[in-house]
UniProtKB/TrEMBL annotation:
Keywords: Antioxidant, Disulfide bond, Oxidoreductase, Peroxidase, Redox-active center. Pfam families: Redoxin. Residues 1-15 have a biased composition (Polar residues). This is Thiol peroxidase. It comes from Corynebacterium yudongzhengii. GO terms for molecular function: thioredoxin peroxidase activity. Residues 18-164 form the Thioredoxin domain.
Length: 164
C-alpha cells in the first residue's frame, strides 16, 4: 500500500506500482471501440501508461493532452491512458480533443489492484490514483511515478527523459 493525499487529506492505494527493472505486468483494458487493449498489442514499442482517476477533471484531461503531445515527439512510443471512465466517455473525450493516443478503460478489469493504484479511501475510493509507468521497447519498467497529491499533475519532464 502507498500513501497519497486527495485535497491534502491522507489516503492509501491498494498496493505498489511495478518497480523499475520489472517486466510490465500484463493487463487487459477495454478500448474506446470496446476491443481489448493489452501490452502485447504494442510489441516493440516503448510504453507510457498514464493512469488517472477520471477524464472529468481538469488535471486528468490535461495529462492526457500533455502525454498525447509527448507521443508525437517519440515515434517509437505508445501512450496508454488508463482510467475507470467508461469507454464511451473516453472515446468522446478523445474525439473532442483530437487525441491520438490509446484509451484504456479499467472499468471491468483488475488493473487497479494489479498495479497497486486503486484508491482505498477518500471520496475517490475505487478510482485509480494518478501515476505514470514508462517502459522500454521490451516492456521493462524504466520509470514510475505515483503522484503524491492526486490533484497535482505528473512530472512530464521526467517521464519524457525516461524515454531517451
Amino acid at each position: 500500500m502507498a500513501n497519497v493525499t486527495f485535497q491534502n487529506e491522507p489516503t492509501t492505494t491498494s498496493g505498489e506500482l511495478p518497480a523499475k527493472g520489472d517486466q510490465l505486468p500484463d493487463f487487459e483494458l477495454v478500448g474506446a471501440d470496446l476491443s481489448p487493449v493489452t501490452p502485447a498489442d504494442f510489441a516493440g514499442k516503448k510504453l507510457v501508461v498514464n493512469i488517472f482517476p477520471s477524464l472529468d477533471t481538469g488535471v486528468c484531461a490535461n495529462s492526457v493532452r500533455r502525454f498525447n503531445d509527448l507521443a508525437k515527439e517519440h515515434e517509437d512510443t505508445v501512450v496508454i491512458n488508463v482510467s475507470r471512465d467508461l469507454p464511451f466517455a473516453q472515446a468522446r473525450f478523445f474525439e473532442d480533443n483530437n487525441i491520438d493516443t490509446v484509451a484504456g478503460s479499467a472499468f471491468r478489469s483488475s488493473f487497479g489492484e494489479d498495479y497497486g493504484v486503486e484508491l482505498e479511501g477518500s471520496p475517490l475510493q475505487g478510482l485509480l490514483s494518478r501515476s505514470v509507468v514508462v517502459t522500454d521497447a521490451d516492456h521493462k519498467v524504466v520509470y514510475t511515478e505515483l503522484v503524491e497529491e492526486i490533484g497535482n499533475e505528473p512530472d512530464y519532464e521526467s517521464a519524457a527523459a525516461a524515454l531517451k
